[in-house]
Amino acid sequence: MNTKRNDIRNIAIIAHVDHGKTTLVDGMLKQSGIFRQNQKVEERIMDSNEIERERGITILAKNTAVTYNGIKINIIDTPGHADFGGEVERVLKMVDGVLLLVDAFEGPMPQTRFVLKKALALDLPAIVVINKIDRPDARVNQVLDEILELFIDLGANDSQIEFPVIYASARDGYAKLDLNDTSNDLKPLFEAIINYVPAPVGDPDAPVQVLITTLDYDEYVGRIAIGRVFRGTIIVGQEYAVCKKDGSIEKVKISNLFEFNGLKREPAESATVGDIIAVTGIEDIEIGETIADAEKPEPVPYVNIDEPTLSMIF
Ligand code: GDP
């Protein structure tokens, strides 16, 4: 029987480079730290920054989780460019809603159009966040009109077009529902996510399906497969089957399971419907493959990664 995970929301952020995604996620991490476990989160952000600085790459993790009022919000980064058509689609399959983050001066950019189009086509609800409203050259109302036009142009359905709008300054750490309000925190953004993005639904007793959508690598544990539990409950130490892309089945034992907390992965004994997890120990697993029940292995359908997409962007 299907159950609803009211304690989880899974969202993806769609944003053009420099519109403030990293700053916003950092702000959300800091605030969920203030609401929950202040010091630890601060340390985590710094740890991560240091590591990322060493590697010379963006500080935004592909997966981040923040907790607000006891609800875990998994935040998934989307590939900024559309060179990986299939990847965008799979990443969007992990979530139940998206944040479209747009600079209050620059407005929506063509590069995010493709990802938004995919999200709308997948029937995902979108929350629009107009960021950098503190900019002296901000042109908030015009930008909002441009976003509305974009939604219409991309064929958004009636409910998608009635998107909630959050006006934010990620840099200054505040968000509000109305430009004339005063706000000194990101609470309105958290509330919009909780209220507008549906909680994951699925059958925790069905045969397991975990769609792998991202790969990571760690020098100690090797390949890390990240994905969402679509149905069933996956348990450490048990045997499962990997439905490979070539149609073959490979038996595997899950030795380590992790959930996301802040920017860190934390060990878990089991995970169920709606959870976003990382699994180690399956060396040859690929993006688009499914970890499934050992007796009844069934893959989650996925789109072909070679799908031509560039011509569809502009
Ligand atoms: P990302 O590429 O989308 O991750 O963007 P960043 O978070 O790295 O932000 C890009 C630049 O915009 C940085 O210099 C930020 O300090 C700045 N920025 C981010 N949010 C705001 C904001 O709300 N107001 C202003 N004025 N600048 C911001």
UniProtKB/TrEMBL annotation:
Reactions catalysed according to its record: GTP + H2O = GDP + phosphate + H(+)
GO cellular component: cytosol; ribonucleoprotein complex
Record keyword Hydrolase present: yes
Domain of life: Bacteria
Similarity comment: family membership: Belongs to the TRAFAC class translation factor GTPase superfamily. Classic translation factor GTPase family. BipA subfamily.
Physiological role: A 50S ribosomal subunit assembly protein with GTPase activity, required for 50S subunit assembly at low temperatures, may also play a role in translation. Binds GTP and analogs. Binds the 70S ribosome between the 30S and 50S subunits, in a similar position as ribosome-bound EF-G; it contacts a number of ribosomal proteins, both rRNAs and the A-site tRNA.
Identification of the protein by name: Large ribosomal subunit assembly factor BipA
